[in-house]
Amino acid sequence: VFVPDSFNASHRPWHFVVWLHGHYNCITTVAGEFNEPCTPGGAARTAFNLTLQFGSFEPNAILLVPELAYDEGSSDPGQFGNPLGFRNFMEELLTEAFLGAVIGAGTLQDVGVMLAFEHSGGYWALNKMATVGGVPQLRKLVLFDGLYGFLDSYQKAIIDANLGTGQYDAVPPCNAFKYGNIYTDYGGTYSNSVNQGNNTVAFAEYMTLDKAILFDNTYSTLSEAQYEAPIIIKRSSLSHDGVPLYYFSYFVTQYFSACSLLLTP
User: Fold this and answer.
1) Model pTM greater than 0.90?
2) How far apart are CA 126 and CA 144, in angstroms?
3) Would you give per-residue pLDDT tens digits along the chain (265 residues)?
């Protein structure tokens, strides 16, 4: 749990960003600045500099980096895979004994915007958190080269959100559903991602909602305005680890600036 200096606990609801790490990593390394082993004597794992990046945005939000499979080649979501698993996690986190000791105890009613990122093998946990996790505030999902499965489930989440009702333009940006999928050619996600892009565009065109979709199977760089699209499915020439290193800051600043949750633009 990282509470930046910019966070003001007196301003409720409280907003959260969640990061789910991939295979062969751990929370201390992904949140840190330097590539280091998770297991003593083991290979160095990739650091994503999360706390330093997050603090530099000066968000009025808290960063959560739960531990998944520790330094293993496993996508097992653990307790997050259970119905209401994410809700149980958040309720425990908000008690006096945990986060409450830092900012004061709260409940799920005190939770506002939630933005969840996954990298690589974290896709399973993200899917379960979004579909059976029991936290309705989680309406912003970003996959970083991690669409290895659950295509139908992720597609249903897109359709069942604002796209499915044709009500997107009427929904305030802070409450609106957002979905991002940044994929590479060699990370094992290309085929699934292209299929998802084509299916989503076809559905949006049928519903006359094509303006809500950004599907770009080129290596072009997203403009600032393009980050405002509710659905972003984008190919990248970056490496598997390079995708989150580059895109994390852009997604956080765009989503949270739309909600006026950054102290500095």
Assistant:
1) yes
2) 11
3) 999 888 888 888 899 999 999 999 999 999 999 999 999 999 999 999 999 888 887 788 899 999 999 999 999 999 999 999 999 999 999 987 778 778 888 899 999 889 999 999 999 999 999 999 999 999 899 999 999 999 999 988 887 775 544 444 445 567 778 899 999 999 999 999 999 999 988 887 777 665 678 999 999 999 988 998 889 999 999 999 999 999 999 998 888 777 766 554 3
